Amino acid sequence: MKRSSGPVFVALTSVVAAVGLTAFKLVVGLKTGSLGILSEFAHSGLDLVAALITFFAVRAAARPPDPEHLYGHGKVENLSALVETLLLLATCGWIAYEAVHRLVARPVPVQVTAWSFIVMGVSIIVDVSRSRALARAAKKYNSQALEADALHFSTDIWSSAVVILGLVAVLVGRSSARPDLWWRADSIAALGVAVVASWVCVKLGRRTIDALVDRAPAGLHGQLVAAVAGVAGVTDCERLRVRPGGAIMFVDVSIAVAALALEASHRVAHEVEAAVQAVSPGADVVVHMDPKGEGAGTVPAAVHRIALVRGLEVHSVAAHSVEGSLHVTMHLEVDPALSLSEARGIASGLEAGVREDMAGVSRVDIHLEPREADVGAGDEVTAREAALRERIRAIALSVEPVRGCHDIHIDAVGGVSEVALHVTFDPDLPVVQVHEASHRLEERLRAEIDGLGRVSVQAEPPGE
Questions:
Q1: DSSP letter at 65?
Q2: Which terminal residue of the chain has fewer beta carbons within 10 Å of its beta carbon, N or C?
């Protein structure tokens, strides 16, 4: 069952239950003259109206966003809960007025019959069933409209119990010297209904108004900030805003991160979204990232930021100081279909951006590289290239400080051989030296083996 059809079905069953109870209480209340039962009829009539409002509200809230409602229609549920609250207040006022009037003006004889207890007993059974079903659905679909409806039915359970106590008091009064005094117990029971319903009304009203004015649930902001700050790569949660909209919680979060490549930035954003949804399931999350964290002040990090703003990918960024000014070099990936003049135009724009945004830059050199396709076609030829594997292994072991070579893999791609190999180094060797040795190995392989394409050297300590 779709999410939209589930709440609608549950709301419709509540309408059917409210219709039956309202009619039953009206007939018995008029027959017995019990204000307690008549107040329960009014209360059930309110529940019927509330159930109808809930039914139409959850149908409207399930509609997708449109150009006039970019956040969807979830607020319709909150609005329906507000209407239910106002109806409940009006009903409580009428019940209290009638009860006080009977107490101070004229006692009204009450006929207590078996039907009086039957209608209230049936009411309690139905209310227990419906309140539980609505509460489960409200929790499952995070629906405030269904929660409000569940609250109405649960209120009826207690108010029906109060009415039964009033009816019992009337029966006891029949054998007393002043039965008129005992008849007042029915009016007192009606006042009890009004008090219970008013208390529920206050609780529901507060929740409804909180949702309509976009007040975040208590403690949610702190939980979300802690969850976001705990994501690897996030150096600070700068701002987090929450906006409830019906069954959906909209969360906007701004985080500070270390300067990252595009792929790594996307990973961090995805993990932040998952962290938010772990605290608030189903939340609609928007993540804004500012590269202000650790490493953000380095030259390579600054160059990556400048490139990302222009939608460009750079790598192998390096810089060195010459007589107090910076010489920056980098590799820029461009569309392979571009002409040289078009690619140089892109590179010139990036160079201008680096000079403008970074102080002290005297020279910028950009190496152009064609951006490769995501997936290329090739054939694995490792098994039938035993001689080539042994030659690669011998060259690798001749490069210092390589200690071992294994897992050599060869693919034939576009008429050239692409090689991937694992080489081992001393585990305490600095990464800088490992990188330099891997680069020397790659140059040796290209110089000594004809027809070699891409070479991928994976460095690792012994035993991996």
A1: P
A2: N
Domain 299-370 has CATH 3.40.50.300: no
Going 356 to 357 to 360 to 362, the CA torsion angle's sign is negative
The answer to whether 371 and 335 have CB atoms below 8 angstroms apart is yes
Architecture of domain 379-460: 2-Layer Sandwich (3.30)
> What is the C-alpha separation between 254 and 262, in angstroms, rounded?
17
Secondary structure (3-state) at 155: helix
Which superfamily, per CATH, for 5-212? Cation efflux protein transmembrane domain (1.20.1510.10)
Amino acid at 167: L
Distance CA 443, CA 255 (A): 41
pTM exceeds 0.90 for this model: no
Could you tell me how many residues make up the chain? 464
Span 318-377, pLDDT tens digits: 888 877 788 999 888 888 888 888 989 999 999 999 988 888 888 899 988 887 665 556
| pLDDT of 398 | 92
Q: If phi over 0 gives left and psi between -120 and 50 gives alpha, with beta otherwise, what is residue 375?
A: beta
Distance CA 118, CA 125 (A): 11
- Identity of the residue numbered 5: S
pLDDT reported for residue 34: 61
Tell me whether strands 361-370 and 325-334 are parallel, antiparallel or unpaired. Answer: parallel
- Tell which residue, 31, 193, 176, 173, has the closest CA to residue 111: 31
Phi-psi region of 274 (alpha: psi -120 to 50; beta: other; left: phi over 0): alpha
